[in-house]
Amino acid sequence: MTEPFSGREQAAAARDFAAQLRWWRSVRGYSQGRLAQRMPHSEAMIAKVESGERWPTEDLARRCDEVLQTGGALAGLWPAVRVEQQASDGRRRRRRDADGGSVADARRLLSMVLADTNLSATHPFVREALAALDGADN
């Protein structure tokens, strides 16, 4: 799920994406509602992306390209939008394991185990696991 712009001015790439989406919809004769009917996204989502209230998703970009036959114009703009979104909300991609936990979460848990001398004595793998996680960051 994407977050709203939180009252900030819409970022340049997102603004360009919104303008291109509106232009392609207009050229193809689609209303927001008609476009939404051809996609698994709602009319409200399309309206919010066009008005800058929501960040477009990669899926929305790809599906709009398909329905509006843009030749990939919107999907081509999406990576720059994603960079702006991550910069605006302070998120960075974190490495995740198969269960969805992050390296930082694992390091925190192992450090807590290591801090408890009773547990670290019964689980000697803790130091090796922490060393392995340190190596995963490099």
Q: Main attributes?
A:
mainly alpha, 0% strand
Secondary-structure element pattern, one letter each:
HHHHHHHH
The proportion of residues forming helix, as a percent range, comes to 55-70%
Total helical elements: 8
Q: Which band does the percent of strand residues land in? A: under 5%
Identify the overall geometry. elongated
Rg? 22 Å
Subunit organisation of the chains: single chain
What is the straight-line distance between the termini? 30 Å
Give the mean pLDDT.
Answer: 76
Return residue spans where pLDDT drops below 50 for at least 5 consecutive residues.
1-9, 94-99
Describe the model.
With 138 residues, the protein is an all-alpha fold. The chain has eight helices and no strands. It has helices at 12-28, 32-37, 43-51, 58-68, 73-89, 103-115, 117-122, 125-136. Helix 1 (12-28) runs antiparallel to helix 5 and helix 4 packs antiparallel against helix 5. The radius of gyration is 22 Å and the shape is elongated. The two termini are 30 Å apart. The relative contact order is 0.12.
Secondary structure: elements and pairs:
Elements: H1 12-28, H2 32-37, H3 43-51, H4 58-68, H5 73-89, H6 103-115, H7 117-122, H8 125-136
Sum this structure up briefly.
The chain is 66% helix and 0% strand. By secondary structure, the protein is an all-alpha fold.
